[in-house]
Amino acid sequence: MVDDNDLERLRDLAVPAPDGDAKARAFAAAMHAFDAQENISTAPQGTPAGLRLTERARTLWREIMQRKLIATPAITALVALPIAGYAAFEMLKEQPPAISNGKVTETVADKPVAQKPAPNQPAINEPLAAAPAKEKKADADSEDRLKDEAQVAPAAPKPAAEVDSLAKQEMAPEAVPAPAPAETTGGNAGASNGVVRMGFSAPGDAAKLNRAPGAVADSKLMVQPAPMPADQMQPQEENRDRIETFKTNPVHDAAQDPVSTFSIDVDTASYSFVRRSLKDGTLPDPDTVRVEEMINYFPYDWKGPDSAATPFNSTVTVMPTPWNERTKLMHVAIKGFDVKPAEVPKANLVFLIDVSGSMDEPDKLPLLKSAFRLLVSKLKPDDTVSIVTYAGNAGTVLMPTKAAEKQKILAAIDNLEPGGSTAGEAGIKEAYKLAQQSFVKDGVNRVMLATDGDFNVGQTDDDDLKQLIEKERKTGVFLSVFGFGRGNLNDQMMQTIAQNGNGTAAYIDTLAEAEKVLVEDASSTLFTIAKDVKIQVEFNPAKVSEYRLVGYETRALKREDFNNDRVDAGDIGSGHSVTAVYEITPKGSGAEQVDPLRYGEGKVDNGGVANADEYAFVKIRYKLPNEDVSKLITTPVTAANEVPSFAEAGSDQRFSVAVAAFGQKLRDEDQTANFGYDRILEIANAARGADPFGYRAEFLSLVRLASSLGGTK
């Protein structure tokens, strides 16, 4: 068949000069042929039927229809081929190959995914299907076959002497089939003569095109804008993180609104998210900064309870405010009972793992697999592990298996591969079902969801997911959420289902963070010692004119919710530390931000009773893990809880205040607007204390990063 280059050469040939002898010979030959024909054809002048390709196609179709030789494969092929051609055309328009200096450069989508050889691993419990293995083998065979069949060798260049014969072939009634070209394996061989070589290395891969420089301009499919200069800023990918927006807690007038109520929060996801943003060279979005989660990220040596009968102990300290000399801080610290290893109950864990297409990034599924390997190494032999995955639909990868069969569990984790949409709802239902099948009475029954939070199949609305989780938690199975990756993180969904699943939410951005959450803090992450923990503080208007709670904006409760045992709240794990900080304005200090009422103020005279000198009254309500009726702990806050100077407060109190100041600074709150990063560094460095894992040293580096990114703020 004649290609574009041959036609170009024909067009550029000079027209031969008239030859009288040749003209006479041609005329004589024509007359002889005419005289020799006895019956003159009645066909009209013009190109005979059958010479053009379109006419041949119509004739062939007419004959097929007349002879009724239509078969199902033929119909399928005739319908599918135009559709496939159009789809290929659209793909080339959307992502044409980048061409520079006559060479075709593969895009990222063009490159075939590297296939890992399957290691020799022990068999995994049913219901693992055998069909996928056969499909993978068939895909591999098909891939090799496509590679071999799709290679089209370039045509050899034709000399100028063959142009006449090419023209004769083009005008002949029937085209002579060209000999089959030889296969080539060289990467550049297909580009030498302007012939397009197309091959598909795997299903779904884009075509790889090689074409000569001279032929590029002749094909509209090959038109490509000039590549972007190397020193030009590349467009950034769209950030589709879903973060809940909230307003900072306001200042309250103690005379008009003396009671503050909130649920505890032991999540740490916000700190990890802030850390990743700063290490990436950007200040975090203020809505990603939840100050209480930053404070509670660090372990503190608060005084704990003496026995498990009282699950936690509270310590309250009043100290001067480092960023405002006319206000004070009321620091409330809670320490959970630390369960001894010998007393740790048996665990029934279900790993609910997102293996959808959005998890196919190094900081998602690969990091997730490494993280859960660490957790498996921490479990006791009698603990039970199950694995459920979801992507498009949910499936059980590993039936309940004792942790003693460690290699079988690790093999199931290692075999996870990403792909498909995200059917999170189906996965959650399947995980709860499996947890119920292997339920351990008086033990730890927990679903551990690992995802980037991108639910796009089933119930994707946060409220619907909340109702689903609330229903399942009543069965005694709790849920914790671990977020991975960035750019597609649904932090809002993670917070919603963790809060309503009696669990925690953590964001894992590094293997070191995975070790902290799943190994070092495993007891507090897995073993709940108290649930539905609420805090209510009543301030004495005779001593406190104003107050504000630092953080906990997303955990606020109504005043009447405190005594309502049906209202859900946060849980405390073994050895957990929880810290809350109030900034209070002492009566008559002159630091009040709310103007007094023109027509009088609320009555604050307590009639000379003994508690008139109290700053506040702290109440903590909680339930034991297997009980539905709450218990109450109360603590009056008096001058005995106060230290005269900030420097005399304990090192843990001072460090937590430095973290609170840092969180407020990142949120650009008014109270810390004039409090510099240098002062935060000074306080944190002086209160660094024992730092066996280096968490506090890392905090100092984050403050320095924020200072450099925030300028003089």
TrEMBL record:
It comes from the Bacteria. Residues 113-189 are annotated as: Disordered. PANTHER family: CALCIUM-ACTIVATED CHLORIDE CHANNEL REGULATOR (PTHR10579), ZINC FINGER (C3HC4-TYPE RING FINGER) FAMILY PROTEIN (PTHR10579:SF43). It holds the Pfam family YfbK_C. Keywords: Membrane, Transmembrane, Transmembrane helix. Residues 348-526 form the VWFA domain. Residues 133-150 have a biased composition (Basic and acidic residues). SMART domains: VWA. It comes from Mesorhizobium dulcispinae. InterPro entries: CLCR (IPR051266), Uncharacterised_YfbK_N (IPR022156), VWF_A (IPR002035), vWFA_dom_sf (IPR036465), YfbK_C (IPR021908). This is VWA domain-containing protein. The keyword Disulfide bond does not apply. The lineage of its organism: Bacteria, Pseudomonadati, Pseudomonadota, Alphaproteobacteria, Hyphomicrobiales. Residues 172-186 have a biased composition (Low complexity). The chain crosses the membrane at residues 69-89.
